[in-house]
Amino acid sequence: MHARTASTSRLPITSDSDLAWVRQHVRQAAAEVGFNLVQQTKLVTATSELARNTLVHGGGGHMEATVLREGVTRGIRLSFIDGGPGIADPELAMTDGYSTGGGLGMGLSGAKRLVAEFTLESRPGQGTTVTVTDWVSGVPSPRTGAP
After folding, report:
1. Which pTM was predicted?
2. Where do the structural domains in the chain lie, given as residue ranges?
3. Fewer CB within 10 Å, N side or C side of the chain?
């Protein structure tokens, strides 16, 4: 396996205007890495949901965007980090239809379906970190070897 190289940027999520900037940053990074338009749209949709959750439910925080290069494999890892109240039952929060904000309850589970890798770490009173990773289509994933 070739050495992994990465570059990371950190963007604040403290206002509605930050949400637009975060989406724009992810779309631009995805295009530069080689994601096709459908992949870009899926990643930006997941970003929009997770950034909004960081602001609304976590009281604000930040996103860390990392461009990944491992040999010919290219991807993006996004971590949405807040110091808010946390999620009391992460498994329940990942259930389709579950909502604490009056929405459809498709946010976290929907975001998970849009990316290759998804992790949620949360502790009540200590905040939440959601990390998603996606890889350029047609290029082998370093995890599975499949395009």
Report:
1. 0.86
2. 4-135
3. N
